[in-house]
């Protein structure tokens, strides 16, 4: 059996690697948290305000859900682009951003629970 050195080819040895900046990955994770929070916020706002609910009704058969999801995806995409430009090529300590993302995802999830967003509905 021949090794890479015997065959005349060179390649990375086990453990040899270049450390890449975590900025783009951190930007994607943080943008996911922002997008999740946007969905929860839009869901709660649509329940709390009739004008917002009507504004978010992009397609009648779907109702305001169409605007909530389109809005959340738009916020996520803009956040991802902006954060990617800001963090591109930077070494970022991603623990803080991961914690922020988890909190935002949790708040977004909370905002989509009926027991939560219905608490903001105007009294009938």
From TrEMBL:
Keywords: Membrane, Transmembrane, Transmembrane helix. It comes from the Bacteria. The chain crosses the membrane at residues 25-45, 65-86, 98-121. The keyword Transmembrane applies. This is Uncharacterized protein. It comes from Glycomyces luteolus. The lineage of its organism: Bacteria, Bacillati, Actinomycetota, Actinomycetes, Glycomycetales.
